[in-house]
Design goal:
about 525 residues, alpha+beta, three-stranded mixed β-sheet, 13 helices, about 50% helix
Length: about 525
C-alpha cells in the first residue's frame, strides 16, 4: 500500500512539473477557493446552531451525559470514583454535568450505583444495616433522626415539582414534667423544578406528610420555605381566626380567577389573544346561616280528636235541665324547612372589561379605530353569560373600548421578524456557499482533467510543420485486394440472407479437411 501511494505522489509531482505557470496558478486558486468555501460553510453551520455546537461535538466524539444538575459535592464524589475506575469523562455546565463515553455509560452507572452514587435524598434507614454494638443511646437517637430526615427527603423529592429538598427535625428530650415538655418542630427547604411551582394542595400535603411521619409533631409547628427564603406554608396555622380569614381570602381569589379565566377564554376565541382585559371583584358571603322555617296552612285542617259531654238535671228547684258540651281538636297542616346556607356563596359581582379596538393602515400608518356600539353590546352580553351575571344580586359590569399600549409587544414582534429574516439570510448564504463550493469543485475537476489530458496526450505535430507532406502518398489498392474485398462482401451478404446454407458449407469444408488429414 505504501508503494502505491509513493507511485501516486511521484506521478502527481511529475504532472505538476509538466504544467505551465498559468495552469499551476489556476489549479492552486481553485483548490484554495474550494477549501475556503468548505471552511466557511462549516463555520456558518456551527455558529447557526447556537448552543447545539458543543453537544454536537460531544456527540461526534461519543460523549453523552452521565448525570446532570449535580451539586458540587455529588460531582466531586462521582469524579473520584471515575478516576479510580479509569474512566474518561468531561465536565460541563460549570461542573454540574458529567459526560462519559456512550459505550460505557450503563457500565459506569451500575458501578456508581454499587457505591450509592449519586447520593440524593440523604441517608435513609440503610444507616442501620450495619450493627454498631458500641453506639450509645444518644448516637442511636441521632441516627434514627438522620434516617427519618433522609426518608422524608426521598419521599418529597419523588414529586415532579420538587428538584431537591432538605428536612430538619427537632425532637426534644422527653421529661417527666408535663409543663416542661416541648413540642417537636420541623422545617422543610424546597427547591422547585425549573418552570414548575408547588400548589397550595401540594404544600398542605407535604405538611401533613411530615406531621404524620414524626411522633408528636403538630401541623402548626412545620415551616416550609423555598431556597429564596419565601414562606410557603401558612403563617396562621396556630391561630384559628387567622386561618379562617386566610382560607376565605384564598377562596375569594380562586372564585375571581375562575370567572376571569372563563371570560378570557371566550373573548380570546372571538377577539384574539391579548385583545381584552377582564377583572372580576367577587363579594362572597362567608356567614354560615342555618334557618328553620315553620309554615301553617289554616285552610287545610284535619280533626284530630273530638270530645262530647251531656249533662241532664231532673227534679231541680228551677226545673229540669239538659246541657251538652263538645270539644274538637283540629290538626293544622304544618311545613318545617331547615335551610343551611354554605360559606362562600356569591353576594355580588363587579366586572370590568377593557377591549382593544381595531387597527387599520391609513396612508401607511397604523390607525386605531373604536369598536361600534353594537359590538360592545354583544361583548357585554357574552361576558355576562360567562360570569353568571345576576341583576337581582346587584351585579355591575362595565365594558369600554380603549386603545391598548402594545408598543412592547410590537417591538418584540419586530425583533422576532428581524431575527427570522437574519436566520433566512444565513440559510441563503449557506446554500449559496454550498452551490459556489460545488461549482468551484466542478471547475477544479474539469481543469485538472483537462491538464492531465494535455500532459498525457501531447498534440501531434502536423506534417506540414515537419515538411513531410510530400513523402507520404496513398497507394491505390491492388486488383487482388479489390477482388478479396468483393468476395468478403458477398459472403457477408449471403450469411445475412441464408445463414443455414453458409453453416452447411462450412461444416462440409471442415469434414473434407479432416478426411484429407486421415489420408
Amino acid at each position: 500500500m505504501s508503494e502505491f501511494f509513493r507511485q501516486v505522489i511521484t506521478q502527481v509531482a511529475e504532472l505538476w512539473q509538466k504544467l505551465s505557470f498559468q495552469q499551476k496558478l489556476i489549479t492552486a486558486s481553485l483548490v484554495g477557493f474550494t477549501l475556503l468555501g468548505l471552511f466557511s460553510l462549516l463555520f456558518f453551520a456551527g455558529s447557526g446552531g447556537g448552543g447545539g455546537g458543543g453537544s454536537g461535538a460531544r456527540a461526534a466524539a461519543g460523549m453523552v451525559p452521565l448525570y446532570s444538575e449535580l451539586t458540587l459535592e455529588e460531582a466531586s464524589l462521582i469524579t473520584d470514583n471515575l478516576n479510580k475506575g479509569g474512566f474518561k469523562y468531561t465536565l460541563a455546565n460549570n461542573g454540574t454535568s458529567i459526560h462519559v463515553n456512550s459505550k460505557q455509560v450503563h457500565e459506569i452507572r451500575m458501578a456508581l450505583a454499587r457505591e450509592g452514587l449519586p447520593r440524593r435524598g440523604g441517608v435513609g434507614y440503610e444507616l442501620f444495616d450495619k450493627t454498631n454494638l458500641g453506639a450509645t443511646d444518644m448516637v442511636q437517637r441521632l441516627n434514627r433522626q438522620r434516617a427519618l430526615e433522609g426518608e422524608l427527603q426521598r419521599t418529597i423529592e419523588s414529586l415532579d415539582e420538587v428538584k431537591s429538598v432538605r428536612v430538619h427535625i427537632v425532637v426534644p428530650e422527653h421529661t417527666i414534667f408535663l409543663d416542661q415538655q416541648r413540642d417537636s418542630k420541623a422545617t422543610v427547604v424546597v427547591r422547585p423544578t425549573i418552570g414548575r411551582e408547588l400548589t397550595r394542595e401540594q404544600i398542605r400535603g407535604i405538611t401533613h406528610l411530615v406531621a404524620s411521619s414524626v411522633d408528636g409533631l403538630k401541623i402548626q409547628n412545620i415551616s416550609i420555605v423555598d431556597v429564596t427564603g419565601k414562606l410557603l406554608s401558612s403563617p396562621f396555622t396556630g391561630d384559628d381566626g387567622s386561618m379562617i380569614s386566610s382560607h376565605n381570602r384564598e377562596l375569594r381569589q380562586n372564585v375571581e380567577k375562575h370567572l376571569v379565566n372563563k371570560a378570557n377564554q371566550m373573548l380570546a376565541g372571538v377577539l384574539g389573544h391579548s385583545k381584552a382585559i377582564i377583572q372580576v371583584d367577587a363579594d362572597l358571603d362567608f356567614d354560615k346561616v342555618e334557618k328553620e322555617i315553620l309554615t301553617f296552612d289554616p285552610e287545610s285542617r284535619v280533626t284530630r280528636s273530638e270530645e262530647r259531654q251531656e249533662e241532664n238535671t231532673k227534679n231541680a228547684p228551677d226545673g229540669d235541665h239538659q246541657r251538652e258540651r263538645s270539644v274538637t281538636n283540629y290538626e293544622i297542616d304544618r311545613t318545617v324547612q331547615k335551610v343551611v346556607q354554605e360559606i362562600g356563596s356569591i353576594k355580588r359581582l363587579t366586572v370590568s372589561v377593557a377591549v382593544d379596538g381595531r387597527y387599520d393602515m391609513v396612508e401607511g400608518k397604523r390607525t386605531f379605530i373604536d369598536r361600534t356600539q353594537e359590538e360592545m353590546q354583544k361583548i357585554e352580553e357574552l361576558v355576562k353569560n360567562a360570569v353568571g351575571y345576576d341583576l337581582a344580586r346587584g351585579d355591575q359590569i362595565t365594558v369600554a373600548s380603549l386603545q391598548f399600549d402594545n408598543e412592547l409587544a410590537r417591538m418584540m414582534g419586530d425583533e422576532w421578524e428581524r431575527e427570522e429574516a437574519r436566520a433566512q439570510r444565513a440559510n441563503i448564504i449557506k446554500i449559496a456557499l454550498v452551490i459556489v463550493a460545488v461549482i468551484i469543485l466542478l471547475l477544479l475537476v474539469r481543469s485538472i482533467a483537462k491538464a492531465v489530458a494535455e500532459v498525457m496526450n501531447p498534440p501531434v505535430p502536423r506534417l506540414e510543420e515537419l515538411g513531410l507532406e510530400n513523402l507520404i502518398e496513398e497507394e491505390p489498392p491492388s486488383e487482388a485486394e479489390m477482388r478479396a474485398s468483393a468476395i468478403l462482401e458477398k459472403v457477408e451478404l449471403l450469411t445475412n440472407q441464408a445463414p443455414v446454407n453458409i453453416a452447411s458449407i462450412i461444416r462440409q469444408w471442415l469434414v473434407e479437411g479432416v478426411g484429407e488429414k486421415h489420408h
